[in-house]
Amino acid sequence: MIRSDLYINGEWVPTAKRHPVYDPSDNSVITEIAVAGDKEVDAALEAAAAAFPTFAKMPARARGEILRKAFEIMIAEADDLARLVSRENGKVFSDAKGEILYAAEFFRWFSEEAVRVNGEFRHAPSGDKRILVTHQPVGVSLLITPWNFPAAMATRKIGPAVAAGCTVIVKPAMETPLTTLAIADILHRAGLPAGVVNVITPTPAGPAVTRLLEDPRVKNLSFTGSTQVGKLLLKQAADRVIRTSMELGGNAPFIVLDDANIDDAVAGAMLAKLRNGGAACTAANRFYVSKKVAKEFVDKLTEAMSKIKMASGLTEGAQLGASVSIKERDKIADLVDSSVKQGGKVTLGGAKPTGDGAFYPPTVMTVAADNDILKEEIFGPVAVVVTVDSDEEAIRLANDTDYGLISYVYSGALDRAIRVSEAMESGMVAINRGVISDPAAPFGGYKESGLGREGGFDGIHEFLEKKYIGVTI
Ligand code: NAP
Questions:
Q1: Given this model, what pLDDT does residue 331 score?
Q2: How far, in Å, are 27, 80, 208, 452 from residue 34 at the CA level?
Q3: Which domains does the chain have, with CATH numbers?
Q4: Residue ranges, the chain, pLDDT below 70
Q5: CA 420 to ligand 1 centroid distance, Å
Q6: How far apart are CA 274 and CA 279, in angstroms?
Q7: What are the tens digits of pLDDT across the range 64-84?
Q8: Catalytic positions
Q9: Measured distance CA(367)–CA(344) in Å, rounded
Q10: Does the beta carbon of 147 lie inside 6 Å of ligand 1?
């Protein structure tokens, strides 16, 4: 059963106003979801605020066990969930299944973290008191998620919030709300008390989010999405000095040094570029390849990309699905067309197919280092390669961006790869790997890619306040 109503205070709430959710592989309507108006937005906040005092006091073990149960349900229902993700997002089933397993792991990880929030008991150096440090849940949190990982971006926020004892209002992207509603259903069945997680789908998002951020009961904002919207929300959050976590855009460099194993680098490039059809903040966006190996790399990458089977997400054997919408697909096509006008050379793909679906084919290009496509997050299956003369040039070009989420480095020498990694202005570096996201590791960016970290030991602290108590003994 596909959930399409709002989830408020433990109940499914229909509204008269509905909004279509499309399958981007053929533009058919999957279902129409309830649209939250001011009344429903207020009800969600009321529910979260009312549930908070009790939930904050629930034993951490009990909160953890609810998350653990939700993890188990997600794993048991992974195929159905993956089909839903594939239908509303367009990604192929294998990517969608991978996302569900990754998403479920956030519930498992934070079920374990719930009971491991440490405090401190210390002697003040002056000897006049003891220093006690404890942590308390920050309170009602607003969680806003994007369309590209509708399951994982939701669980990466809900998991630590619930583990910490916070109550939340989740606002998923309007292209992909069904997965979040399905996750709310799982949490409900796992025994989460009413009001702890509420899901609303207002459209347009702006006025409803502003309404929530202006309310003194909202204490925390966790946002994943574009840098443009993130900046807007940071300004709004500043008015009430609301705590924020920001996971924003990326423009990841993928560096191949002259001593790299090129077959390995191509295999890593295929993962870093094509996972999720390239619609990942971690997607390799700019390939900087040493002159000595550039031809071999481009030839082998072109060959590997040419074998990719593009088809609607649920087609047997499909490796590349549709983009989330025609609008997003056309953005990719426009970037490639402008890049070609600036001198970019296409070695594979590079043209929109005809037909109804939001498809864009695997594309490989070589461009000069000043081509404008290198400044944009492509969010599609387009690999753009630039030839470099030295490690220093690769480092300089890789860092020449306002973003700093992740970098990829391929080299046959670990010391050389680590030296380049240390020079990368990014929150994460993958050495000789095409994927490093892991619920047990801190995920987040430098520069305009964000503030704070999700996952790992840091994730729960985005939902906790630190309190120091001084006492004479
Ligand atoms: P987006 O346009 O910024 O939207 C993200 C979310 O913000 C959606 O729920 C959207 O709601 C909402 N939103 C849009 N305008 C808003 C406003 N004025 N006020 C409040 N909320 C607003 O991003 P997207 O296109 O969905 O996602 C792609 C972006 O996310 C890329 O830049 C990608 O790099 C980034 N991303 C980052 C990470 C990370 O961890 N760093 C992970 C995944 C994705 P509506 O759908 O209703 O408009």
A1: 98
A2: 19, 22, 15, 32
A3: 6-248+449-471 (3.40.605.10), 252-438 (3.40.309.10)
A4: none
A5: 31
A6: 8
A7: 999 999 999 999 999 999 999
A8: 247, 281
A9: 5
A10: yes
